[in-house]
Backbone:
């Protein structure tokens, strides 16, 4: 074997090993975080955690029922705001817009994606807290929903653009209108990608603390309706983790685990729905 | 030289026939579609020049010519699919049963003039729903299941798929997918079926099946097919039009065009000297 060939084989092997090591580092960080969360959170979690309100300062025990329900309400309303706007906006970008309008919307979407979450929080505070003089679920959801929009917008656009032109032509050649084609052929062909993007956006805002600090604020009791300040898991984790009490630290771990579990369950459910449809094979 | 086989003459859009009385000569009334003086532009580039041509009812007409000669463009004007492309512009007259299609509702037109594409393009739906699609979007009152079976039978696909109608269309082979696309087009009972090189992505056996099918489908509708393959044109078509750089060079009954072409350029092309 010539020296040149030996060198090439070495370089090939070395680079392959490097990519493997980097992949391993990524995965091990993830597993370390998850493992730590499961160990600490798992030992602190119990039935009360899901059913009781937080105990007064100084008393041990109590739970975070209000924060779990609060987070669920925040995320539900945020999705109701963010998903339709992001999705329909993405459809417009991919299918209808002229070049100038598309450029402006796309650019605005990218800018919005880059805005720090705390700034989104301040914006929601100015829009929905100051005028009404109280914090609320609605204000928190508005901030979270706003953060979902650009992620869903751009992914929807990309996945729709990825649908082969041949499918659109096939539909139009049968006499379908443009909207009918989009609705009955193009969106079904792209829906897996779009749903994945919605899940990513959902998971991303589920853990956001900053935009909730001065919109939903927090609440040690039940929040009735949509117009009162509400507790939420990320904000509870933030406050409890910074507190001097060991019992609160344990509860913060448990809350982290619950938040993770919530996202995981939604992910699994969505993937189960996804696996039933027919997708376009890659050519 | 034969009088009717000159270079594209606008006044003579009837498929020309040699004088020998044994050959069929369709009268103008037997033309399902006809185009006259069609000019076509993509942006500022003109791709069709004064093309006039007639498509005989219940016959197969083949459009042949080298790549870029405008044969696919010509085909796409027949159901106005060119309108889906930006900057495309058409001048001229295209008649379907004597009415100008450019003045009609495009949805209605495409229901009457179906189209099958180069590559099989089934929708991401089940086999059944692919065929039912055209019926559903057109709000057809026909019982859908019966219409689907009928179309699949016409496309010679029923026996192969009758037990798996609710499986994904992508589980079929390429040739089956193309026949599915033909069934999908037939479901809305079009008067004209346009095919844009329907076999170019298929293996020889699938190609043979599609060719056989097209000859049978003549009884149901008028067929216009674009093909790169001259043997295919010779095998399946009744009339052949030869195009070159956007111009109609020769248009004759198929046996005539392939045995005694009147234009030297046609002869050069069919004998393989270029293209």
Residues:
């Amino acid at each position: 074997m010539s020296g040149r060939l030996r060198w090439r084989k070495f370089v090939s092997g070395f680079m392959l090993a490097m990519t493997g090591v980097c992949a391993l580092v990524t995965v091990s960080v993830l597993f370390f975080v998850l493992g730590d969360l499961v160990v600490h959170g798992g030992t602190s979690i119990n039935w009360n955690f899901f059913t009781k309100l937080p105990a007064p300062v100084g008393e041990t025990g109590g739970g975070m029922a209000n924060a779990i329900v609060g987070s669920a309400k925040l995320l539900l309303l945020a999705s109701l705001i963010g998903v339709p706007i992001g999705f329909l906006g993405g459809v417009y970008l991919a299918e209808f817009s002229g070049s100038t309008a598309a450029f402006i919307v796309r650019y605005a979407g990218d800018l919005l994606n880059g805005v720090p979450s705390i700034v989104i929080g301040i914006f929601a505070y100015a829009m929905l807290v100051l005028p009404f003089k109280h914090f609320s679920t609605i204000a928190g959801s508005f901030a979270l929903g706003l953060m979902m929009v650009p992620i869903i917008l751009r992914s929807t656009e990309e996945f729709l653009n990825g649908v082969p032109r041949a499918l659109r032509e096939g539909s139009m050649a049968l006499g379908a209108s443009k909207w009918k084609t989009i609705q009955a052929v193009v969106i079904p062909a792209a829906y897996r990608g779009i749903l994945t993007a919605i899940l990513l956006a959902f998971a991303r805002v589920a853990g956001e603390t900053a935009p909730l600090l001065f919109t939903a604020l927090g609440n040690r009791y039940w929040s009735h309706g949509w117009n009162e300040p509400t507790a939420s898991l990320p904000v509870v984790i933030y406050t409890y983790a910074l507190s001097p009490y060991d019992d609160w630290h344990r509860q913060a771990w448990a809350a982290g685990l619950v938040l993770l579990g919530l996202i995981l369950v939604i992910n699994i459910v969505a993937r189960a729905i996804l696996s039933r449809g027919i997708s376009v094979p890659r050519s | 030289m034969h009088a009717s086989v000159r270079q594209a003459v606008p006044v003579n859009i009837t498929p020309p026939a040699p004088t020998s009385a044994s050959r069929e000569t369709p009268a103008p009334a037997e033309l399902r579609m006809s185009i006259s003086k069609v000019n076509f532009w993509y942006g500022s580039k003109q791709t069709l020049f004064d093309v006039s041509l007639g498509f005989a009812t219940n016959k197969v007409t083949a459009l042949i010519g080298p790549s870029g000669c405008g044969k696919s463009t010509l085909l796409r004007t027949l159901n106005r699919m060119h309108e889906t492309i930006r900057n495309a512009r058409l001048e001229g007259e295209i008649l379907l049963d004597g009415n100008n299609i450019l003045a009609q509702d495009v949805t209605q037109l495409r229901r009457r003039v179906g189209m099958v594409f180069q590559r099989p393009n089934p929708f991401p739906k089940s086999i059944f729903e692919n065929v039912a699609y055209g019926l559903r979007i057109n709000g057809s009152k026909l019982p859908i299941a019966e219409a689907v079976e009928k179309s699949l039978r016409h496309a010679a696909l029923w026996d192969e798929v009758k037990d798996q109608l609710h499986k994904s269309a992508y589980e079929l082979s390429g040739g089956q997918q193309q026949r599915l696309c033909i069934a999908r087009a037939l479901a809305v009972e079009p008067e004209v079926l346009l095919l844009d090189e329907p076999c170019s992505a298929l293996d020889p056996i699938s190609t043979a099946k599609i060719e056989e099918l097209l000859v049978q489908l003549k009884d149901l509708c008028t067929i216009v097919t674009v093909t790169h393959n001259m043997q295919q044109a010779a095998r399946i078509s009744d009339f052949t039009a030869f195009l070159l750089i956007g111009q109609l060079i020769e248009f004759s009954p198929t046996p005539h065009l392939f045995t005694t072409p009147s234009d030297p350029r046609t002869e050069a092309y069919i004998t393989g000297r270029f293209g």
In short: Residues 33 and 39 of chain A are 10 Å apart (CA to CA). Chain A has a mean pLDDT of 91.
